Amino acid sequence: MGSLVVGGLVFLCLSMATSIGLIVRARLPDHHLNAESKDVIRLATAVVGTLSALALGLLIASAKSTYDNAEVEMRTAAARVLLLDRVMAQYGPETDKARQLLRELIEKRLSRGWTAETTDEPSAKALGEYQDIESVQADLRSLAPKDAAQRSLQARALEVSGMVAETHWLLVESGKEGLPWAFLTVLVCWLALLFATFGLQAPVNPTVLSILLVCALSVAGAIFLISDMANPYVGLVHVSDAPLQSAIERLGKP
Predict the structure, then answer these.
(1) Residue 201, pLDDT score
(2) Which sequence ranges are marked TM in the entry (predicted)?
């Protein structure tokens, strides 16, 4: 489900909860909303409000951590690709085919996107990315080093290519995690309860209604950011592929 859709649904849910509170207020007898009753309602909702604030803070921190880790992963992957290319260049012209395969791998990654859903999709003309990196490793293993220096460079190239392959599989596994939907659902229920009590206590006038709608929009915006940052390679708030763009400009150079 898209982040904008999630944010929009949360906004509708909170707006409906506020409307329900306003409707119930109009139908309740006056003594149900006297000063003592409102004090009890405020105390009860303060508990739910505190829990909601803690849960929202935890989700934002978790999403931000996921986004930061993805950003580091992108830079690390680009650095490893460059290192692998330079090690193969030092080995000699025997690695030209492997270097070309590596460049094609990065071009494919940039065209398909940095997502677990697209990175392993084979097509009529292209293999999955894991097969591409395995082809690079197969070429490296087929090399016949002539001296100790080339043996050392071959071993180093295989080690770095293994790191690149490991980064790929980590992306595939971590891409299945996503949002803790059960946690998010409970949070939205708490928030809906809070906004219902706001409507229950609020006088019906344009100023109050505008403030409540702005608050609902603000909370929905926070949920949108959580959903978007929890999927850091897609959406409006996504990790830049600038490190890979910079890397591909350097690949294949002598």
Answers:
(1) 85
(2) 43-61, 181-202, 208-226
pLDDT at 121: 53
Token pair of 251 as six digits: 């690949």
Amino acid, res. 211: I
Question: What is the pLDDT at residue 129?
Answer: 55
* Longest CA pairwise span in the chain (Å): 95
Q: Residue 236 burial (CB < 10 Å; 0-12/13-18/19+)? A: exposed
**What pLDDT score does 196 carry?**
92
Please write the tens of the pLDDT for every residue from 27-63: 888 777 778 788 888 888 899 999 999 999 988 998 8
> How does DSSP assign the chain, residue by residue?
--HHHHHHHHHHHHHHHHHHHHHHHHHS-GGGGSHHHHHHHHHHHHHHHHHHHHHHHHHHHHHHHHHHHHHHHHHHHHHHHHHHHHHHHHH-GGGHHHHHHHHHHHHHHHHH-S-HHHHT---SS---HHHHHHHHHHHHHT----SHHHHHHHHHHHHHHHHHHHHHHHHHHHTTT---HHHHHHHHHHHHHHHHHHHHHS--SHHHHHHHHHHHHHHHHHHHHHHHHTSTTSSSS----HHHHHHHHHTT--
Report d(CA 183, CA 181) in Å as an integer. 5
- Residues of the chain short of pLDDT 50, as ranges, are 122-127
Q: How many other CB atoms are there within 10 angstroms of residue 176's CB atom?
A: 8
**CA distances to 6, 92, 107, 109, 244 from 98, in Å:** 44, 11, 14, 17, 18
